[in-house]
Amino acid sequence: MATPSRRFLILGLDGGTFDLLDPLMAAGELPFLQSMVSRGVRAPLTSVYPAKTIPAWYSFATGRDPGELGIYGFTEPTAEPGRSKLVATFRPTEAMWDRLSRQGRKVGVVNFPLLAGYPLHGFVVPGMFSQRSVTYPRELSAEIEGTLGAPYPPELPTYRESERAEWLGEAREYIVRRGRTAASLARRYAPDFLFTLFRETDRVEHQFWPELNRPVAEIPEDLRQFWRTVDAACREVDSAFRASGGPAVTLVVSDHGHGAIQSDFLTNRWLENEGYLVFRGDADFSGRNLLARMILWSQRLGLGRLLAKPVANVLRGGRAESISHLLSGAASFEEVAERIDWKRTVAYSYPVPEGIYLNLRNPELSGERREAVVAEIRRRLEAYPEAHIEVLEPRSIYHGRVLGRAPELLIRVDEMRTEPRMDFGYPDPLIRERPEFFYGCGTHRMDGILIGAGDGVAPASGGEPLSLLDIAPTVLEGMGVPAPPGLAGRSFGRRLGLAA
C-alpha cells in the first residue's frame, strides 16, 4: 500500500461563484479565502449538466458524470406516470473517500447529501436528505450534540420575506455549527481526508441574488455578515485539519455557479401548445390561468408590487396553499398528471425540469416514430423565436451510457438565465416578467469555483477552466492512491504543482 504523500481537506461552498467572491475578497470581507487565492491556485470549475446539487455533488465525489451514475436530478421516474422517487446515492459506485478508506486512509465526510451514514474507515455525517442525521458511527450524533450544545443543523426552512432577519440569523448559525462540527471531528479523529459542505451559501444566493450582485459597499450588512461567517468557518476547519500535522492541501470547490434568473420556461406548457402533451377533455385551467394573469399584471403596478411579497408569504405552503388550489386549481405536474391523456401524449417534462421524456405508454410511439419525434421536437425548440434554447442529447454530452432513466433530450435556455419548469402555473410557456417574489431571484450557472492552497501547491494565476469531474482523480493521485480506470475526469495535480 502506497504511503500518502499529503492529506486533503475539501471545503464545499454550494453554488459558489467568483462573480460574487472576487469582489468580496477584494474588499477584504473574506480574508481566509483571499489568503488561499494569493498563495495558491484559482480556476473556474465547470459543472456537469444539469448543474443541480445532486448530480453535481455526486459527480464530484466519484469522478463519473451523470450518464455513468444514472443520476440527472433529485428524483427519477417510477413506473407510474407523474410520480417519482428520490434518486439512489452514488453507492455502489465508489466515491473518492470510499476508495481511500479501502486503502487504509482515515476519511471524514460532513454534510454530503446522503440518506444515512455507512461503514468506512472514518466517519460520516450525512446532510440534506434527513432532518436528523444518522451518522456513522451512530454514537457520533451524541458526540456532535455534546460539542455543539445543540442538534446538528438540518436544511434551512422555506424563506419568508417577513422573517428575513430570523432566517439569515439561522443561516449564519447553521454555518457556525457545521464548521464547529467539522473542526471538532478533525481534531479528534485526525483524518487523512475530510470533506465538509456548506449548503447555506446556495440557499442565500437563490433568495438574495440582486442584493448580492451590487457593488460590495451597497450589499446589505446582513448578507456581508453571512459571507464573513462562511469565511470564518472555512478558516476554523482548515486550522483544525492542519493541526494534526503532516503536509496538507485545502481545496475550496463548488458544485456549480450562480447568477441572476430573468425568466421561466414552462416546458410542459410548450409541449401542450405544440400538441405533444394532451389533456383529457375535462381538464380545466381557467381558474389557474386567471390567477396567473392577475399575478403577472400586478407586477406592472406600484401598489401591486408592494402587495406581492406579503401575498407570496401567505400562499407559501400549509393551509393557505390548499386555499389557493381551491380558488384556482392545481398547477404542479404531479397534481395534473391524472388529467393527462397518456394514450395520446407523446412527450412530457418530468421529473427533471431540464429534461424531455418520451411517453412509452403511447401505443403509436414505435422505434422509428420515436426518432422522428425527437428530431421534430429538437427542431421546434431550436427555432423557438422568444428564447435561445439549446437542445442536448445525453449520449452526446455524457461519458457514460447508463441512460435508462435519462431524459430523451435536455434543454438549456438563454444560457441558464431562463429556468425550465415542469408546472402549469401560467398560461404561456415563457414568463419574461418573472414573479421573483414567489420563486427566488438567483439560479445556477455552469462555472463554479476552485481555490487550492497548501503544502507543495505552487502559486499560479489564470489557466483553462477545470472540470468538477477532475477533483476525485486529483485527490486520489495526490494521496498516492490509483484512480479507478475509465473516470470521466482527469487529474490536474501538475497544475497544482503536486505531480511530477
3D structure, described in words:
The chain is of the alpha/beta class and 500 residues long. The chain folds into two domains: 7-259 and 444-496, 3-Layer(aba) Sandwich (Alkaline Phosphatase, subunit A), CATH 3.40.720; 263-439, no CATH class. It has 19 helices and 19 strands. It has an eight-stranded mixed β-sheet, sandwiched between helices. It has a four-stranded antiparallel β-sheet with strand order 11-12-14-13. Strands 15-10-16 form a three-stranded mixed β-sheet. Strand 3 (75-77) and strand 4 form a beta hairpin. The longest helix is centred in the middle third of the chain and has 26 residues, at 164-189. The chain starts with 6 loop residues before the first strand and ends with a helix. Residues 318-329 have low confidence and may be disordered.
Keywords:
500 residues; Alkaline Phosphatase, subunit A; 2 domains; eight-stranded mixed beta sheet; 19 helices
Low-confidence stretches: 318-329
Question: Quaternary state, please?
Answer: single chain
The figure for the number of domains is 2
Cα-to-Cα separation, first versus last residue: 20 Å
Q: Mind telling me the C-alpha Rg? A: 23 Å
Compute the number of strand runs: 19
Shape call: globular
Give a summary of the structure in a few sentences:
This protein has 500 residues and is an alpha/beta fold. The chain has helices at 18-26, 31-39, 53-62, 66-69, 96-102, 140-148, 164-189, 200-212, 221-242, 267-273, 286-298, 302-315, 318-328, 333-336, 367-382, 394-397, 436-439, 471-478, 493-496; strands at residues 7-13, 41-46, 75-77, 84-86, 107-114, 122-128, 193-198, 248-253, 257-260, 263-266, 347-348, 355-358, 389-392, 409-413, 418-421, 430-431, 442-445, 447-454, 466-467.
